[in-house]
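1st attempt posting a full record on here, be nice pls
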Amino acid sequence: MMRIFATATMWTQACILAFAAGVTFIAPNINAAAIESCDVNSPGLIHCGSAPSATFSDDGSLWVVFEYQQHVWLTKSRDDGRQFDVAIRVTDEPENIETNGENRPKIIVDDDSGSLFVSWTQKTEGMHTGDIRYTYSTDMGSTFEPVRTVNDDGLLTSHRFESMLLTDEGRLYITWLDKRNLEYAKERGEEYRGSGVFYTYSDDNGRSFAPNQKIADHSCECCRIAVAPHGDNGMALMWRHVFDVNTRDHAIATVNGSDVTSVNRATVDDWQIDACPHHGPSMVPADSSETYHMSWFSAGDTHRGLYYGRHDVAIGETSRVKQMDGRPGAGHPSLAVEDDVLHMVWKRFNGVATDLILVSSSDDGTSWSEESVLATTEGGSDHPLLVQGPEGLRVSWMTHEDGYKFVRIADSKPDIRAFTTTTFEDIKTQREGQPFVLALWSVTCPPCMVELDMFGELLKEQPGLPLVLVSTDDIEGMEDALDFLYDYELDGITSWMFADSFTERLRYSIDPNWFGELPRSYYFNENHAAEAHSGILQEDQVRYWLSL
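the predicted structure (as tokens):
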């Protein structure tokens, strides 16, 4: 199986432009209540570190690298992240390791050779300068070879935001953002926008590397690079690029050894900004060797928010572009495919807490499930990273409150929210221009169960079914409602429960002409003109309403 690690980032960002561009700040350590001990001889050291990155080996072991006190550390879990071994220090000498923004240590496990590959960015003495650092282990982490610098220009300039990929045939790629050509342009008295995208590769299990090679000039200088396999021995990569003068959209290219394809424009968002968005993309293979699922953030004139799209590198075209979240506070998506289902996670700050959001697509990104909340924190948090393991998909997420969290998607709790007098207007606002069905039910309503069963079966066929479920039961009885949602396989979509003892007031907020009979349903067209129905709703009627 192809092993990939592209960067994701650590801790909440303070934004000064849109809701991504800005100055990054880092919480220096984890809430003491969330950890056992910050002693380096304690298994709890992972909770004290910064910028963790995770991957699995074929035997089901979870491997995590992280920064702590200017060293890179490695720890291992044999029980899916519940308990960890005492960490091993990867670096002999302390280094000023990048853990802010879109930088973090990274790890790949090569089961075929019994090797571990670890990379990170080292800050150097100049402003915004750095080197790409690398080491490897031939004995699965018991010892590591001396650390080396991968960039070969010898310049005090910016080499940062590296990503790694290991192909099925065993070729190891490292790619990064590099400003050597800016330095050369200065010497010639020429202007130069942004950074360059450079890479190298190894065909001998990471022991030696080819000379550095340029992929493109004029990338954005502060966003992570997404990488994915291309064929058996190549790499596809996607990055934020500077088009024209200051249009910071995305580009994509492929490499195979020393061969580099031409650069294609992957997104057309028209984000005109002379600043650092600090917001890199995510990319995974789609249903052919030439197509890729992509997710990205933009605050452009054409597209604003989090987006999904598919890109065909053979013809240089992007399709199925869809806004996934346009709300302020949403950002830093991660994509993964598991059992032919495409999953996307991101985090969204709502003014009080940060939610970890999941949506899924069973039809290759054509339609998507309703949002579900995997976890919530009221403290600072990492950006989420999807990790594929032998027993399914997980989310790697560091939070200030709870330390390192390894969230199992299948075990996530359904997202049930409080329905108040303003909720229905909020729902309509979020679905502006989109038709949807509103279904009201109760745990004490036997006919409602018939309708829930119908919706559950229809949702299997139509994962993106625009369904809003509202239970008229008091939210204090959530556990009873959960039982029914699990029974009818409706636990994967967001739903609501009444959160006011004055139920007449809540009913009135939905429809002043509704007397409270159940089940009660409504169809709202794209202009949100309503059609009401009392009694058990038939599947044929839902299909007619939604043109399924």
